[in-house]
Amino acid sequence: MKTALALTAAAGLLLFTVSTGFADDSRYSPWQGQVQTGDMTELLKNLRALTDQAEQDKAADPEFLADLRSMASEYEDRARWPTRLLYDNFSDGNLTGKPTWTIVAGDWRVATNSSGTNALTSRVRKYGSYSSTSSTSNGTDIVAAVLAAVLARQNGTTTSTQQTQDAPASILVPVAISDQFSIRIEMASRESRGQFNYGVYAGQNGERSYQLAYLPGGANGLSLSRVTPQGSQLLATSAGAINLEDNQLHVIEWKRGLSGKMTVALDGQTVIEATDVGSRKPFTGFMMVNSGGNFAIQSVAINGTAK
Questions:
Q1: In terms of Cα–Cα distance, which of 47, 38, 41 is closest to 68?
Q2: Which residues form the signal peptide (predicted)?
Q3: Do 182 and 117 sit in the same domain of this protein?
Q4: Do 76 and 133 sit in the same domain of this protein?
């Protein structure tokens, strides 16, 4: 009984401490608040300990304990990555507001679906010989080449190249991103082909980048890579194929914390874990590349540590 009461008190204190609560990004305006991490970290630690004890003693309803664990995880993310760096749900119907996106190549447009919700969409015909049997590293190398060409052209260090309907479609937004970050996107894949990459980059020509790739129909549906001037290095992949072509919206959460530890969760389930310390410096932008697919992005949210 005492454990259950302590749990209730801790949960109430947590809700009071961070009054912003669980704001749904698709319903509320971007959250700009700061979280004091000292007391919050200790409170979350105590809440988890109480939850574990209550589960062991069978002192509370299992569903209640599951809700507490979920709540603790949500607030833990707020404490680790307290600063909102970028948010867009494309509700304004354009790409020129805040944030301001740059379409580098291909077709990107804001479209309204049957339910009246806006999303950023991109459709590209099959890119060369690229298919679901292609290696993920080759796909990331394509993105690395695209990123280098994109930024070099923006910086005026190379001549423009001819674009075709088959070439990868790319879009980016310059934004300061800390080396520890949390990226959450809501997306749908409309056709089982091509590849969708997104990630952070840095350097005049994008010399450093982390990329997360979705390969419809691939043996490993999601893959995480680090891109450098020397090429791309595959860090980890999900186990088995992933199907996002089910006419549903899916949430992908990619987090990078202390010591380069990264996790990727699909619809709340962790599918990738990796550690890489190849980059410890902040990043200068966020990019997305569509290589031969048909994708819709309903929202992008990036949080980081204090600037």
A1: 47
A2: 1-23
A3: yes
A4: no
Question: CA–CA separation, 291 vs 195, rounded Å?
Answer: 5
Could you tell me which residues come within 8 angstroms of residue 133 by beta carbon, excluding any fewer than 6 positions away? none
Residue 86 CA: distances (Å) to CA of 29, 52, 83, 180, 293: 12, 35, 9, 14, 25
- Residue 51's φ and ψ, nearest 5 degrees, are -65, -45
CA of residue 188 relative to chain centroid, distance: 14
Do 113 and 237 fall within a single domain?
A: yes
Strand partners, 287: 172, 199
Domain end among 80, 114, 136: 80
Which domain-ending residue is among 80, 98, 133? 80
pLDDT, tens only, 46-72 = 766 777 777 777 777 777 767 676 665
Q: Where are the alpha helices (DSSP H) in the chain?
A: 2-17, 37-57, 62-80, 136-154
In contact, 97 and 87? CB cutoff 8 Å: no
Residues 74 and 248: their CA atoms lie apart, in Å, by 23
Q: Could you report the per-residue pLDDT of 85-115, keeping only the tens digit for each?
A: 999 999 999 999 899 999 988 999 999 988 8
Q: Are residues 74 and 176 in the same domain?
A: no
The identity of residue 202, as a single letter, is: A
The residues near 243 (Cβ < 8 Å, ≥ 6 apart) are 192, 216, 221
Overall pTM > 0.85: no
Spatial contact of 68 and 51, defined as CB atoms under 8 Å apart: yes
Q: What is the DSSP letter of 293?
A: -
- Look up residue 217 and give its amino acid: G
Q: How far is Cα 122 from Cα 195, in angstroms, rounded to an integer?
A: 12
DSSP label at residue 60: S
